[in-house]
Input
Amino acid sequence: MRIVQLLSGGFDSVGQALLLQAAGFTIYPMHVQFRIGGGHVVKEKKAAQAVTDMCGFEPVHHVYHRIPLREYATRNRTMMRLAGEYADTLEIRDVAIGVSCMPEDIYTAEGGDNAEDNSLGPLQLQVPAHIHVHVLQMERASLLQLVGALPIVALRAMFKTTSCQYWGKVDCGQCHSCIKRHAAFIAVIGYDYTEYVNDPKLTARWTTNFERQLRAIGGNKSEDEG
Output
């Protein structure tokens, strides 16, 4: 089985790719540069390439397609259309996207409580009917659940992803994303090899985030283990 995975270099898309690979899919990563440039572009592109090399995915298909800031809320529709076009050239019938937030292009107009009903509407419309869209919604499949679902051997690739809300060469260790990421790793597996400028455990929000993760899995690790 083959699948085109939109691979940003972030935690959600890489995690989805690893889950699909474990399920038997051959991953054809596609990285869309939709910003003009800057440190964030370099960092994401570098992370996507590092994960691809480490995990044995097919070569990354890089696409530059600028998306104006006013259209960021619906950028996943554009990227899904591009992924569908790429999949058609390869005669692949599956495309995948992982999203860490729920911009308006994920939900259907009707809303509702069923995740499957909500997630596919606008995105499925961007590709031909014969292509199936796979969506990993991080709002429902939390970072904690994703770490727990991955094989231990696959987790090393997750340390290469970028989650920081800032765009320095090294993740800051102080923003919400860094703290939540570090807490999930420590709670589930007891360690985190991600490089941070600052130790997330020294932030004011660390204890709350770590204890929340432990409660979610019924764990009993101490902070000293991190």
